[in-house]
Amino acid sequence: MVDIELTKENIIKNFDKMNGFIKHNNIHIEKLEDDLAIAYANINENSLNPNDTVHGGLIFALSDTAMGTLCYLSGTKGVTIDSSISYLKPCKGKIIKCIATPIKVGKTIGVYKSEIYNSENELAAIVTANYMFLNK
After folding, report:
1. What CA–CA distance (Å, rounded) separates 67 from 33?
2. CA distance 32 to 34
3. DSSP secondary structure string for all residues of 117-128
4. Which of 30, 39, 52, 117 has its CA 20 to 30 A from that of 66?
């Protein structure tokens, strides 16, 4: 994440200026609160697997980005140390959406969950992850 003043507004404003993986995969933050991150990914032909559905790696990346942004908002950079994803329905269409929330935030470890919704607003995946805080 780019070093910026830690306000929700600055994080959202600067998020779309980021290069690399997030930009390449069309990931954006829609809403950010202390205990909520809503993110989405615009889907294109490069987002698809051989079955013409959204690649599971992108689904996980969107989730990891939203949960990682919550870590950053709490005042620390975090890295994923463990995660679990359950794919429930395929994702097709132009957009997928993620709603991420913290489960427990401790001194050195944070536990987060997220739900991924497909274009029909159906729950398509559930992710839980543990993050190690690097600078708390």
Report:
1. 12
2. 7
3. E-TTS-EEEEEE
4. 52
User: Which option is the CATH number for 8-133: 3.10.129.10, 3.30.750.24, 3.40.50.1220, 3.30.70.270?
Assistant: 3.10.129.10
Q: What ranges do the domains of the chain cover?
A: 8-133
**Alpha helices (H) along 16-55:** 21-24
DSSP state for residue 55 in the 8-state scheme: -
Is 96:43 a contact under the CB 8 Å cutoff?
A: yes
Q: What is the pLDDT of residue 1?
A: 43
Residues of the chain above pLDDT 90, percent: 67
**Which two three-digit tokens encode residue 103?**
């489960």
Tokens linked to 74 = 């709490």
Asked if 89 and 67 touch (Cβ cutoff 8 Å), the reply is: no
Closest by CA to 40, choosing from 98, 116, 125, is 98
